[in-house]
Amino acid sequence: MHVPTSEDEAVKNYTRLRNTRVDALKKAKQNLLSFLLRSGRVFSEGRNYWTNIHYAWLKRQQFTDPVDQETFNEYLQEVYDQQDKVDRYNQRIEQLSQLEAYREKVARLRCFRGIETHTALSLVSEIGDFSRFANAQQFSAYLGLVPGEDSSGQREKRGGITKAGNTRLRLLLIEGANATLRSSLYGQKSKRLKARQEGNEADVIAYADKANRRLHRVYNNLTNRGVIKNKATVAVARELSCFIWGMMNNKID
């Protein structure tokens, strides 16, 4: 049975603190948007919320009723406050990732498109010893990313994922899969990804690049066969978990 170190426990608790603040930020944004919708204020100057254009639009909003203005100001300030906290926690997580116990592992994981420092550090601090999983399938099962089976008589049906195991890491990998698939640079590398990969060994980078290409192929093959996007994304997260296991156990040939 794996026994985490006191350092792992402390770092894990901090990364979880960051996640609760991210949830609070999402809630603050939802509250603000709901208030604006109830007030008949619709953003039409761009396609996406929370961009510089959107924030500039928010700052221009004025309400005739002073109480409405006060309510809006409070909702907007809450978004700023929660964002400041997330930014502060992210900076601290960057520092923690440079501790000797985590530096190399985090650097390797950041070579994958879709895995930023907080996801990499969460994986390393929560899992500890990746070799305790005999193979990639066991690791995926621990995360609850393998399909369940429904056996009835002579029939055996594969259903949705089991959702057993570590819920937090499963959700982080699904988020990572989404981030990977949002990239329009299929087969290419963004400057940001190149910067993350810099300093790693050539075989590590090659393995991560192989994974990044395969994840896109898996998603495209599934969606072209009519699989709904959410299920295809979960399948990509499962593939990503297998590559992570390989990276952490040096199975990168």
Automatic annotation (TrEMBL):
Alphabetical list of Pfam families matching this protein: Transposase_20
Gene Ontology biological process: DNA transposition
Annotated Transposase IS116/IS110/IS902 C-terminal domain residues: 108-184
GO MF annotation: an example: DNA binding
PANTHER family: PUTATIVE TRANSPOSASE FOR IS117-RELATED, TRANSPOSASE FOR INSERTION SEQUENCE ELEMENT IS1111A
Protein name in UniProt: IS110 family transposase ISCARN28
Species in which this protein is naturally found: bioreactor metagenome
Lineage: unclassified sequences, metagenomes, ecological metagenomes
